[in-house]
Design a protein that fits this description.
single chain, alpha/beta, ABC transporter transmembrane region fold, Rossmann fold, four-stranded mixed β-sheet, 27 helices, 8% strand, long-chain fatty acid transmembrane transporter activity, transport, ABC transporter domain-containing protein, coiled coil
């Protein structure tokens, strides 16, 4: 059950209660004053409006806080009552198909082939940027009824509200200064009250604008991250092919998905404010100034905008290209640190710390030089930008606002007066005093109009400055857009296997554009028919052929041992069957599923996932998958006992223990954990690539017999001849003069015995030549001895130094 609420009044709630009491007392006093003075009615309305505005804002905020706190407690109670989960719906394949044309078939105007911008197009304000940004917006805002559309609409409402409040503040500023100069104390105090009331609303509006901008940014990032993850981690193995076959994103996708994506979303969300709000301000304030200053001032303002934009556009450095290069260098520097962390033990054994230190320093120096060059370029541009937008525009604004004062015929200044001179008043005062009153009233009107126009000009200059500053922001956004678009277009290319040769040319032999083979899933066994074993290169380069034409079939119970020298292509066979490497020619057949009743692969390097001890045994299953399959922890303990790891749960802790298992387990324990996964999933076929090289021979035999006893057909990749006893067939690679031939034999047959006998005969022939080699060595030593003594004593002295140096070799 959820705990009962123990809410205490927040400071905002207490402030609202006190303000309500103050408002009641204020209203009572104003009612009394209204009876005494007929002019207090307006005062009562203004002060009541001020008090009501503040009360609504503070009490509304306090009520919202109260509602949110109670809702949080109710949600917490539900979580205590039952376990809850978050359901994330994956992106539909139809969505990927609809978006594929946006990323793989761009229009000719965008000047991009295969969706990836070519190297000769720098990221900047061009058609490619507009197309890329529009394609990404299709992902960030999928439909008009989405949450992102609601956030953008709400943000737009608050932006318009802030523009309206700016107009109100400009008028109030002129009224306050007018009343201050005229010495009207009551009107001045009322203006201060209205100023504070509007200020409270403006503060709330500004806070909501920043809050909504952050919400838009995280909403954009959520959409893009889920979209990228669905492309990156799917059945097409894009997370492997992206780095090892395609190479379109360089060293890896981590820099793109984490840093570049975050910067892009922040920049895109801020662009909505930095462009939308100033644009509305420009239209609104220009219209107001047109009514106050006339068409001449408006024409001068438009000319000023055009001249400033042209000047800054011509002198603006390529910020987009610089940001894109900076992101790439940041990724390279991060990859160097990640590589050192992943290979820390090997580097420590070799004592390679100084070498790695030099490499890291060199990488950072390259990054630092590039960033310093960007900062140097920004110095001059920022000087020009600040001088033009701040000082030049301010001086120009003073000139514009002075037009109605010095050139009233060119302006449209309407002289208004709050207290016009009436005929009754003229009859009571002298002509001189009437002229003096009219002159002061006219001066006050000019003062009010000048202050209002000045405030509008300052707001207009701020809006125009933000529009000009946004040119640089747009250039930086173009750099982020190019990198994110490159990542998604490359993922779409991997997902759709859309590799085509360049226009007007043929693809390289054994490149990704030259795949003509077939990978068939649904065969009860492993079959390769006329398949060349090729080590692929990054697209679009062709790969290196290792075996010309490989053919074999493995059925249930046909245990196969694949042997051969290093570099012959033993592990390449498992990669082709797993679908990691393409089948360039011929046919590759394998079971449809991976895991139980399917096929499983144990790689050379054992992988231990982050998680509990239970997760290490059942990987890639999760605890929920294990429970759904009806498996129990007692079965896991039995599996560990079978691979001689039953002590792990006692040594390391219970099944829920979380550790860095790759650092806890030894090399042999890691390999036995891999065999434990094999026994847990019980596939029909299993590729074991050097899976027992760190295990003793007695335990190794036990592991193989246990796996065979569970009905698992083993395809082992190893150079250990002792493993033949556990297999039925051998596939020897790397034969022939060019090491591109192979031999498939059944162990125990006459041909296999002849092969072994042939190998023994070669060894006997070599052993029979040992005596001849010894005799030849003795003759060479005697000849060398004659060379040293034939020169006599002088030669011996002359060659004494050389003789001492060569003595150890003799």
């Amino acid at each position: 059950m959820a705990a009962q609420s123990t809410l205490r009044p927040s400071p905002t709630d207490r402030f609202s209660e006190l303000f309500d009491r103050f408002y009641e007392r204020l209203t009572a006093r104003l009612d009394k004053s209204q009876r005494r003075s007929p002019l207090s009615k307006r005062t009562t309305q203004l002060i009541a409006t001020l008090a009501l505005s503040l009360t609504l804002i503070t009490s509304g905020y306090g009520g919202y806080r109260l509602y949110r706190r109670r809702k949080t407690e109710r949600d917490l109670g539900r979580k205590l009552d039952r376990a809850t989960g978050v359901t994330i719906h994956p992106t539909k394949n139809t969505t990927f198909d609809a978006h594929r044309r946006l990323f793989l078939n761009p229009p000719r105007e965008a000047r991009m082939e295969d969706g990836v911008p070519p190297a000769n197009i720098r990221p900047g304000l061009n058609m490619a940027f507009l197309y890329q940004f529009g394609a990404l917006m299709r992902i960030m805002i999928p439909r008009a009824s989405s949450k992102e559309s609601g956030l953008l609409l709400t943000h737009a409402v608050f932006l318009l509200l802030r523009t309206y409040l700016s107009l109100v503040v400009a008028r109030m500023d002129g009224e306050i200064v007018r009343d201050l100069v005229a010495g009207k104390g009551r009107a001045f105090l009322l203006g201060i009250g209205k100023w504070l009331s509007i200020g409270a609303i403006s503060s709330y509006t500004n806070s909501m604008i920043k809050f909504l901008q952050s919400k838009i940014s995280i909403a954009f990032r959520t959409r893009l991250t889920r979209y990228i993850h669905d492309l990156y981690l799917n059945n097409s193995l894009a997370y492997y092919k992206l780095h090892n076959l395609d190479g379109g994103v360089g060293h890896g996708a981590d820099q793109f998905i984490t840093q570049d994506l975050t910067l892009f979303c922040d920049s895109a969300a801020s662009l909505y404010s930095s462009l939308g709000k100033p644009l509305v301000d420009l239209v609104t304030f220009n219209f107001q100034l047109y009514q106050s200053l006339g068409p001449l001032a408006l024409s001068a303002l438009l000319i000023n905008y055009f001249a400033t934009a042209t000047l800054l556009r011509k002198l603006s450095p390529p910020f987009g290209k610089m940001k894109a290069v900076e992101g790439r260098k940041e990724g390279e520097f991060r990859a160097m640190h990640a590589r050192l962390i992943a290979n820390a033990e090997e580097v420590a054994f070799y004592a390679g710390g100084p070498t790695e230190h030099t490499l890291l320093d060199q990488g950072f120096r390259e990054l630092r030089k590039w960033m310093e060059s960007i900062y140097r370029i920004k110095v001059g541009y920022n000087m020009l930008e600040d001088f033009v937008l701040k000082y030049s525009w301010s001086a120009f604004g003073y000139l514009i606002t002075s037009i109605p004062v010095f050139l009233p015929t060119l302006g449209s200044l309407t002289e208004s007066s709050n207290s016009p001179t009436t005929p009754a008043l003229k009859s009571k005062v002298s002509t001189a005093s009437a002229e003096l009153f009219e002159h002061s009233d006219r001066s006050g009107g000019r003062m009010k109009q000048f202050i209002t126009n000045k405030r509008l000009m300052l707001s207009l200059a701020d809006a125009g400055g933000r529009m000009m500053y946004s040119i640089k922001d747009l250039s930086e956004l173009a750099g982020y857009t190019s990198r994110v678009y490159t990542l998604i277009s490359t993922l779409h290319r991997v997902h759709a296997n859309a590799y085509y040769p360049p226009r007007g040319s043929y693809p390289d032999l054994f490149s990704l554009a030259d795949v003509q083979g077939t990978l068939h899933k649904g065969f009860d066994g492993v079959r390769l028919e006329n398949v060349p074993v090729v080590a692929p290169s990054l697209y679009p380069t062709g790969g290196e052929e290792l075996i010309d034409d490989l053919s074999f079939v493995v059925g249930p119970g046909d245990h196969l041992l694949i042997t051969g020298p290093n570099g012959a292509g033993k592990s390449a066979v498992s990669r082709i069957v797993a679908g990691l490497w393409p089948t360039y020619r011929g046919l590759t057949s394998r079971p449809r599923t991976a895991g139980q009743d399917g096929i499983m692969f144990l790689p050379q390097r054992p992988y231990l996932s982050p998680g509990t001890l239970r997760d290490q045994v059942i990987y890639p299953h999760t605890e929920a998958d294990m429970q759904a399959a009806g498996r129990r922890e007692s079965e896991l303990q039995a599996v560990l006992e079978q691979v001689k790891l039953g002590y792990i749960s006692e040594r390391e802790g219970p099944w829920d223990t979380r550790k860095m298992w790759k650092d806890v387990l030894s090399g042999g324990e890691k390999q036995r954990m891999g065999i434990a996964r094999l026994l847990y999933h019980e596939p029909r076929y299993a590729f074991v690539d050097e899976g027992t090289s760190a295990v003793s021979s007695d335990v190794e035999g036990l592991l193989y017999e246990t796996a065979k006893g569970k009905g698992i057909t083993l395809i082992t990749i190893s150079t250990r001849a002792s493993l033949k006893r556990y297999h039925s067939y051998t596939l020897t690679l790397g034969l022939g003069e060019e090491a591109n031939e192979y031999e498939f034999l059944c162990i125990g047959t006459a041909s296999e015995k002849d092969s072994v006998e042939k190998e023994l005969q070669e060894l006997r022939e070599r052993l029979s030549q040992v005596e001849q080699w010894k005799q030849r060595r003795k003759e060479i030593e005697e000849e060398l001895g004659k060379v040293w003594t034939a020169g006599g004593e002088e030669d011996a002295v002359g060659m004494g130094e050389e003789t001492d140096l060569d003595a150890p070799s003799r």
